Amino acid sequence: MKKLIKGIIDFHQNRRDKVKETFAQLALGQNPDCLFIACSDSRVAVNVFASTDPGDLFVIRNAGNIVNPSHDSSSDESEVAAIEFALEKLKVAHIVVCGHSDCGAMTALCQGRDKLEMPYLKQWLRHGDEALKRVRAGGKKLGGAEEINEVSKQNVLLQLEHLKSYPRVAELVKSGKLEMHGLWFDIQNTDVYYVTPEEKAFRIIDNVEGPKILAKLKS
């Protein structure tokens, strides 16, 4: 907490004047073009690895970057409400689900969420069970960090599927008004990977693949 307060003091003394005009404009209203669904993990700093600015993203964060499917939406109305607001009020053109390496939520899945002594987390992570099932049904013998990271990637794809279970999301995607994307952040190597629901293959965003990905985006 001391670091947080010291940071606010530093912002007030040294950086506030540089961004004051930006925030003055944002005070008139927000206009992000992307709903960004990420894990609550403190290391997933999208403002750092994606160089985003205030006002760029409308963000939902939770344990495991999870989206509860439409048939189970009553279990977390706050998340569904945020998705609804992003689509209907902000008219976002993109939804991103971002997973990451060394994910604690995915670790809990791999080790067996039935062992968790945190009842709410145990219940919440049921929305990722299918990702673990798909990895273990794939025939590869994985273990430890390798399995956790593979489940994390599959979980990104699974949550994109959950999003499309909402009729409004599916409708907007079909009409071409909404695009859906997955990102996966490798914390140790500071690499970011990209995937679409259609391709299902994660590609590193670098000087070679990055321009190819950009060329396929509508906006």
Task: Please tell me about this protein's structure.
This protein is an alpha/beta fold. It has two domains: 1-29, no CATH class; 31-216, Carbonic anhydrase (Beta-carbonic Anhydrase, Chain A, 3-Layer(aba) Sandwich). Helix content is 46%, strand content 16%. The protein has a six-stranded mixed β-sheet, sandwiched between helices. Strand 4 and strand 5 (191-195) form a beta hairpin. Helix 6 (129-136) packs across helix 7. The radius of gyration is 18 Å and the shape is globular. The termini are far apart. The model has no long low-confidence stretch (mean pLDDT 94).
Key attributes of the depicted protein:
6-stranded mixed beta sheet, alpha/beta, 2 domains, 46% helix, Beta-carbonic Anhydrase, Chain A, 6 strands, 219 residues, single chain
What is the gist of this entry?
The chain is an alpha/beta fold and 219 residues long. Helix content is 46%, strand content 16%.
Q: Secondary-structure blueprint of this entry?
A:
Blueprint: H1 2-26, E1 34-39, H2 46-49, E2 57-62, H3 77-88, E3 94-100, H4 104-111, H5 119-124, H6 129-136, H7 144-164, H8 167-175, E4 179-186, E5 191-195, E6 203-204, H9 209-216
